[in-house]
Specification:
The structure holds two protein chains of two kinds.
Chain A (H helix, E strand, L loop, with lengths): L2 E5 L3 H13 L3 E5 L2 H10 L5 E4 L8 H10 L8 E5 L6 H5 L3 E4 L4 H13 L1
Parallel strand pairs in A: 1-2, 1-3, 3-4, 4-5
Chain B lengths: L3 E2 L4 H6 L4 E2 L4 E5 L5 H16 L3 E5 L4 H9 L5 H6 L3 E5 L15 H13 L3 E5 L4 H4 L3 H17 L3 E7 L11 H4 L2 E8 L8 E9 L8 E7 L2 E4 L20 E2 L4 H6 L4 E2 L3 E6 L5 H14 L4 E5 L4 H10 L5 H5 L3 E5 L7 H15 L3 E5 L1 H6 L7 H14 L3 E7 L20 E10 L2 E11 L9 E6 L2 E7 L15 H22 L6 H26 L7
Parallel strand pairs in B: 3-7, 3-8, 4-5, 4-6, 6-7, 14-18, 14-19, 15-16, 15-17, 17-18
Antiparallel strand pairs in B: 1-2, 8-9, 9-10, 10-11, 12-13, 19-20, 20-21, 21-22
The chains are: A alpha/beta, B alpha/beta.
């Protein structure tokens, strides 16, 4: 269906997100931090959606979103934030499309992804 | 006359076991400005107005106008009292005393007797007998003079109240006046280092033929005269005391906290909310008082910092309305300044308020400020015991606050003072979890009842405080260094559970192709294995061989 990039330092969460997205027949590519995510995008410019954590080593999700929005090639790719932080609203100010609080429901995640891609 | 001559000053009559004995000569002694004349005149005035006992003032000290002006500063109109026919003032030269010793028909005694007969006087104030020292330098003659005057006043049927100046503090000699009278009352002024105002104390040093309470007791000048605040030492309680009080709970006013406390605070005993600054201690008091008012239980807040109106406004903003309870008489707010308040006075006022307003709940903010009212730090605990004793005997549920400074990374229980004096101790703290400051509440102590003892989040919502989430997967929060992480718990424990549940739901779908269902089962198995591994790691459980 669509190619989706997961940027998440916790391997277990990456696995769960991948499991959920594959049930929606999406193609999933993975990165373990914000910098790796930006590098992965360079070789996968056809990504339709990015799902990212915020608190990560090397480069956090906030910085990655800011850099994405500054680069015209990726500026329009929608970003979903997956975070355990109670108040992650500043990610929206930087250009994230929506915040999903951890722990999340894979069914609801799939539904959100569907709506974002349709939009 | 039989019985006791009441002074009409409640605290002083309490010290005197009801009052002075009639016809006993009473000496009021003190340094200049200690309040001798005021106290003496107040006893005369109260005799006239409260006990229908006419009184006489004999003054060697002052001009009539000056005496009248001084007494009018308390709203006591001397001219009006004289017009009522039960009061007279005589201003006599000290030299007139000289004739007293030798001649019964002295000018002094003649005038006093005449005035006493005219109004039917029972009490007479002689201000001050220190003037006998101006008549003669011979101590023996001074003593004879005073003794003669006192005997003649007593023989006239009067109860003499004499004032005298306090001798030099440099010597420990007791002035001769004290030997020739029946009762000696010492008024003292003491200015301690660091105290802006002098402490005034009253002491019954001698009371011939009657019981009295010894020691120095605080008193103060009020717009209505002198008020005395006896030290109240609680008597031990017997088995019968409090026997009719079952152990029941009163609501804290916070539903979540009541659940943690399994019903609320224990009724009729003192509890404590201790915490660092800015953790909702005062707000908890507001909830406690509001809950009391809602249940028809009159409450009293004693605040040493926040003025009442400010407290009401702040709590209104936090969603805890108190103004209505104040208007309905269900809530009384007292503001006291630590350095200007004596705890004996506060005790006395509290005792009166409990009786007058049927107070059922008292909130005291804070124990720290309460302790600042005690001039001798070693006595802080005594005062706390006395206050809690009063509240317990009256069946009043009390909630104190205590501000603590976290100086160490030990459990806060080590930073809280006087723990043993409280039935329940609630700890309010602030911890950093995942780069976020969270306020937490925990029950550190709960006597006579079970409590959950775990740590919960506390936040201020639109209707006041809300006690909510239990912090899972964390330890060491009370020490200020949480170990185990919220994020980790969410990601490694909760997330696999929730995901497995969702995949089960998906697998149950009728439309799902068999191949996809098989993938879902594989996913569920993988998640359960992951969960099993994490839980074993977390709790240190080794894998068992099957």
């Amino acid at each position: 269906m669509a190619k989706i990039l997961i940027v998440e330092d916790n391997e277990n969460i990456r696995t769960i997100v991948r499991m959920a997205l594959e049930m929606g027949e999406h193609k999933v590519i993975e990165a373990a931090d914000g910098l790796a995510g930006l590098q992965t995008l360079q070789t996968n410019p056809d990504c339709a959606l990015i799902i990212t954590d915020l608190a990560m080593p090397v480069m956090d999700g906030y910085e990655m979103i800011t850099r994405l929005r500054a680069e015209s090639a990726f500026a329009n790719i929608p970003v979903l934030v997956l975070s355990a932080e109670k108040d992650a609203s500043s990610a929206l100010e930087r250009g994230a499309f929506r915040i999903i609080r951890k722990p999340f429901s894979p069914i609801e995640l799939l539904e959100t992804v569907r709506r974002v891609l349709e939009a | 006359m039989k019985g006791k001559m009441k002074t009409g000053i409640a605290g002083l009559d309490a010290l005197l076991d009801g009052g002075f004995l009639y016809h006993n000569a009473i000496l009021l002694k003190g340094a200049p400005g200690a309040g001798k004349t005021t106290l003496g005149f107040q006893i005369i005035r109260n005799g006239i107005l409260q006990y229908d006992e006419p009184g006489l003032v004999v003054s060697f000290d002052q001009f009539p106008q000056q005496f009248c002006r001084d007494m009018e500063s308390f709203g006591w109109n001397v001219a009006e009292m004289e017009a009522g026919g039960k009061f007279k003032t005589l201003f006599i030269s000290p030299e007139d005393l000289a004739a007293v010793a030798a001649h019964h028909e002295s000018l002094f005694l003649g005038r006093v007797q005449q005035a006493a007969e005219e109004i039917g006087a029972v009490r007479v104030l002689v201000d001050s007998v220190s003037h006998v020292k101006r008549v003669t330098a011979d101590p023996m003659r001074q003593r004879t003079l005073l003794m003669g005057a006192i005997n003649q006043l007593k023989a006239t049927g009067l109860t003499p109240i004499l004032t005298a100046e306090l001798g030099s503090r440099a010597d420990d000699l007791i002035d001769f006046e004290e030997y020739v009278v029946d009762c000696v009352v010492i008024l003292d002024l003491l200015l301690r280092p660091g105290q802006p105002l002098p402490e005034r104390t009253i002491e019954i040093r001698k009371a011939r033929g009657q019981n009295c309470r010894g020691g120095k007791h605080p008193f103060k000048f009020t717009p209505a005269g002198i008020e005395v605040f006896p030290h109240c030492v609680p008597a031990p309680m017997g088995l019968d005391d409090l026997a009719d009080r079952p152990l029941v709970n009163v609501s804290s006013g916070i539903a979540g906290l009541d659940r943690v406390l399994q019903g609320g605070f224990t009724a009729g005993v003192p509890s404590l909310v201790a915490g660092v600054s800015g953790t909702y201690k005062s707000t908890m008091l507001a909830h406690f008082l509001a809950a009391g008012a809602a249940a028809g239980e009159p409450g009293l807040l004693i605040s040493f910092e926040e003025p009442p109106q400010y407290f009401i406004q702040v709590m209104q903003q936090r969603g805890i309305p108190l103004a209505g309870a104040v208007q309905n008489g269900l809530l009384h707010l007292w503001h006291r300044v630590p350095k200007g308040t004596t705890l004996d006075e506060l005790y006395y006022q509290l005792q009166g308020a409990i009786a007058q307003h049927s107070i059922r709940r008292v909130a005291i903010d804070s124990l720290n400020d309460f302790e600042r009212c005690v001039p001798e730090p070693a006595r802080c605990k005594d005062y706390l015991i006395w206050f809690n004793d009063l509240l317990m005997r009256r069946g009043v549920s009390a909630l104190w606050t205590q501000k603590i400074d976290r100086l160490s990374d030990r459990s806060p229980i080590g930073d809280i003072r006087c723990l043993s004096q409280f039935d329940t101790v609630v700890y309010l703290g602030q911890v950093e979890i995942e780069s976020e400051l969270r306020k937490v509440v925990s029950i550190l102590k709960r006597r006579g009842a079970k409590c959950e003892g775990d740590l919960r989040a506390i936040d201020c919502g639109p209707r006041g405080l809300v006690v909510s989430d239990k912090f899972l997967g964390l330890s060491g929060i009370l020490e200020g260094s949480p170990r185990g992480q919220y994020k980790k718990t969410v990601e490694e424990l909760l997330q696999p559970v929730i995901s497995a549940r969702d995949f089960v739901k998906m697998a149950r779908g009728e439309q799902i192709p068999p191949a996809q269902r098989a993938v879902l089962y594989d996913n569920i198995e993988q998640l359960l294995e992951q969960l099993d591994q994490r839980l074993r790691e977390h709790f240190g459980i080794e894998e068992t061989e099957s």
